[in-house]
Design goal:
By secondary structure, the protein is mainly alpha-helical. It has a three-stranded mixed sheet with strand order 3-4-7. A two-stranded antiparallel sheet has the order 1-2. Helix 2 packs across helix 11. The longest helix has 36 residues. The protein is globular. It starts with a strand and ends with a helix.
């Protein structure tokens, strides 16, 4: 969405953007190889003392890199005897990257609204998203496990795509087979490879969502001070045991504890209207400020116009035809007549609530 000139600024007066970036726009990409052609640009500009919408916010795609990556997947599909491999590989890679980035929008939207609430209350507006990005970039630069695992938003974004019983979660085996989802605990792919337990265990997803909030609110990657315990566990029991311990420690800190027990202090929780204690972090990421098909997609590169036509909900088959085509090849025998379409009006509460 582009920001129009409005007296009050903020989020007022948003309009539909063009689908191509301006000449000379930066081309980025995530660290993980399956997402190196995707990146999410935050809703608010950084470094401002009042809310100001970034006109280039949304999901960005390096179209040329995506086509090249999909060609490699197509080769593997052809070896498996998959018909229409070039088409299916592109759709599989794009829908994964798109929904991964949509989770970043869910986090960005809720953190941005918190920043704007502070500004509306007359307090200085902290640049929480930019501070968190800088912390995570340092982790990405070192890539040392288990410290790298604390880029937890990436773990949740992959887990969000792979969660059951959603329609995209049903394509998990195809994402795995063709290297789009990392093999669980693949050290070379860092936090993106920690998706499995997080996707399958509601308790783990909820705990890591709390952790992402705490990271933003405190400006620290390890606000609970648990890294030394995780490193010790990795040395003694291996990486699998260390990640399980990471989940346990975060979960303990996100639940009220009896006096004298590990896992947090009394002042970490606030009683709600019903007297139920809630962690002072703001919980999970149940929805974005915008729905999936309202979040702008920006295509960079020479293949951009072709992808715009292919993934235009108004003119093409995106997203419903894309999903059906993928299921027709990978999960037709398991697809029922009643399934959770991740793009319908009632999906966010069901699919994303932690």
């Amino acid at each position: 969405m582009r920001q129009m000139e409005t007296p009050g600024g903020g989020l007022a007066g948003l309009s539909r953007p063009e689908r191509t970036p301006s000449p000379g726009a930066d081309v980025g990409g995530e660290i993980d190889e399956a997402l190196a052609m995707f990146w999410y640009r935050n809703l608010l500009r950084s470094g401002t003392d009042h809310p100001e919408v970034d006109p280039d916010w949304g999901i960005h795609v390096n179209a040329d890199a995506l086509v090249e990556w999909a060609a490699g997947i197509a080769t593997a599909m052809e070896r498996d005897g998959v018909a229409n491999a070039p088409t299916l590989s592109l759709d599989l890679a794009f829908i994964f990257g798109f929904d991964h980035c949509f989770f970043h929008h869910c986090v960005d939207a809720q953190v941005s609204m918190h920043m704007m609430r502070l500004h509306a209350a007359g307090q200085p507006m902290p640049d929480l998203r930019e501070q968190n990005r800088e912390c995570c970039e340092r982790l990405h630069g070192s890539r040392n496990a288990p410290q790298w695992w604390f880029a937890i938003e990436e773990t949740l974004a992959n887990a969000h795509v792979a969660r059951d019983p959603t329609r995209l979660g049903g394509l998990r085996e195809a994402f795995l087979r063709y290297g789009i989802l990392p093999q669980p605990l693949d050290v070379s792919r860092g936090p993106w490879a920690l998706w499995e337990q997080t996707a399958m265990d509601e308790r783990a997803f909820r705990a890591l969502s709390h952790m992402v909030w705490l990271q933003h609110l405190t400006g620290e990657t390890d606000p609970l001070g648990i890294l030394p315990q995780i490193e010790m566990e990795a040395e003694e029991g291996g990486l699998d045991a260390a990640f399980n311990r990471l989940i346990d420690l975060i979960t303990e800190a996100c639940e009220p504890q009896l006096p004298g027990e590990d896992g947090g202090q009394d002042h970490d929780w606030i009683a709600d209207l019903y007297g139920v204690p809630r962690l002072h972090a703001f919980g999970g990421f149940a929805e974005g400020l915008f729905r999936r098909l309202d979040v702008p997609i920006w295509f960079h590169g020479g293949n951009g116009p072709d992808l715009i036509r292919r993934y235009d909900a108004q003119r093409g088959e995106w997203p419903y035809g894309t999903i059906e085509r993928l299921y027709g090849h990978f999960r037709l025998s398991e697809a029922s007549s009643e399934w959770d379409d991740p793009f319908t009006s009632d999906d966010d509460e069901f699919e994303l609530s932690p």
